[in-house]
Amino acid sequence: MSMININQSAKDESLLPQKRIIIDTDSGIDDIISIIVSLKHEKSKLEAITVVEGNVSLKQGLLNLCSLLDVTSLREKKIPIYPGCDKPIIQNFNREKPYSSLSSFHNLSAYSLQERNLITKHISKEHAVLALIRMVTNEPNEFTIVCLGPLTNIALAIRLDPFFLSKVKNIVIMGGCLYAKGNSTRVAEYAFNFDPEAAHIVLTAAKQYSVDHPHNTQPKLTLVPWEVSVEQGLDWKFYDYLINTPPVNELTNLMKELNTIKELLFRKSHENTPVYTSNAVLQYQINATKFIMSDLYTLVCALEPENVIKEYQDLDVDVELSGKYARGLTCIDWLGNGQRTLNSRIILKIDKDVIKNILIRSFKESPSTFLKKIPTTSEPIPLILKLKSKL
């Protein structure tokens, strides 16, 4: 399949209807920012958030979202949050390597137990997998699912409902590697490495869907690989503009707080004294030198594909399930031997200006009507006050 280079003029955004979005998330730093953007984007209608274990435990992921409720009044938006799977399908992910030291990066909650109990009353009792099946069954071909974590919830939905993919409009996934430059192991991207069996189930189902619907012009899955966000990361000068240039509001302050550790590792390491680590997982990212927003890129590819996607290729993709080094490796049929089973649209190049404009619209406007209060200089944001002490 030949590579597609998109140079056509962008469509008039005012003519595009709102997209009905479900975000499946492991509630890490970039996930939270992506959810904020989805709430603010004029063409996004975020209707549900399903939570899966990944960057943090399922429990902590739910608490992270509850912390976000306090910032953006998610409760007033009446967006349900569904707890999903708390472990991979087959075997537990080895948290001792390589992400055990990173788990605190994503710990956003500094609430008291009483406050946590109060907020978690708003978490739905329905399991995320059952909620996903119910929503797409009741309104088929309406929802785009944006996957920002491991694919465990989606895989189990497919296992329980063999027609699940036919009922989904599209699934846009932050996952996999183009060139085996991993961020979890030397060859594997984190989400695919965390639960490769889940990725295999989803990719295999998409292959079968392609066989059953040969006249469809686009695969059911869209993959935004890790290298795209690394190689096409944003400049730190833009980040400075985003968080420091007036108007500065609660959301820009939150953006700054969330990215404190990321800035320390990925910015200070090359602007000041170089940082070296024995953790191979981190070294590749540290050397990237850019402001990396992989989950946000994925969301925008779902919301504005006609504007942000510049190059893509439809290919046959699977994931390696075994091997001392290769477990979780993204296996792409670049030679086209599987053209009858094209299951994934792989994003190769995006328009960073579109990403920048969306971030400006989301974080640089006057304080959102979602906000309950505006922080003052004497009232620091409480979300990750304990974060630095854990490093």
UniProtKB/TrEMBL annotation:
Entry similarity comment: Belongs to the IUNH family.
PANTHER family in UniProt: SI:CH211-201H21.5, SI:CH211-201H21.5-RELATED
Protein name as it appears in the record: Nucleoside hydrolase
Molecular function via GO: hydrolase activity, hydrolyzing N-glycosyl compounds
UniProt keywords, alphabetically: Hydrolase
UniProt entry tagged with the keyword Transport: no
Stretches assigned to the Inosine/uridine-preferring nucleoside hydrolase domain: 21-355
